[in-house]
């Protein structure tokens, strides 16, 4: 399942997602500027989306779609935003087909240069006017919001450096995967927890694994300080159990032909969240993690750990 379909089916309006029933026609230009600006200023660290053609009701979403003949060329929106908001906001506007219905999507990305505000007066929006998305609402930015924006210049990036999760640390009950953390902000960031989710290619969650260390097993008290302007590379240690091979369809040799989707979610001491996703990932298992799989198939297993 791709990201847009996942948002339509399971997403809810929040600081990185908004649903609109109709396109922004010329008489709604002010609304477009307000929504794009607020989304760009939100504290969410990744891409933000406005999906057009979906009515979000309390009882559930209604997929109404838009008339394909009335799809508005993205250049109209780009020019409007470029002329009226500073600094420049990068976004894409594109057509998206979902279950036979045509929708339109704004994808707002690379919003590290906050705050974004009105370059000049437009309709009822005065020069310097600044909105920020909080939850499902657009609100006027306050002093605390500006403080947060300026103190958090730059970003915290997560990257997978290995395509496979290696469940090889059976004595500690852990698996590991090589990752990189890059802190380009002006402040130290302390990671206090996280989870690695493993899903199939249809988006179904198969297993989840809590983060317990970097290069060595720490446990539930794991904390990782990443100083400003620093990159750290290491093997992320995550929990792994002998029941996980069943969930992941791992055979008695510790392999599976299936490929997975990994999503790593981390949280810092200020409760800010960061994420990274990798497709076409694999899982390899050895040792005592396989004893239950072997037992089910009647294969003897000699334990090599104290457990």
From TrEMBL:
InterPro entries assigned: Schlafen_AlbA_2_dom, Schlafen_AlbA_2_dom_sf
Organism field: Paenibacillus woosongensis
Domain (Schlafen AlbA-2) ranges: 13-139
Record-linked Gene3D superfamilies: Schlafen, AAA domain
Name under which the protein is recorded: Schlafen AlbA-2 domain-containing protein
Pfam families: SLFN_AlbA_2
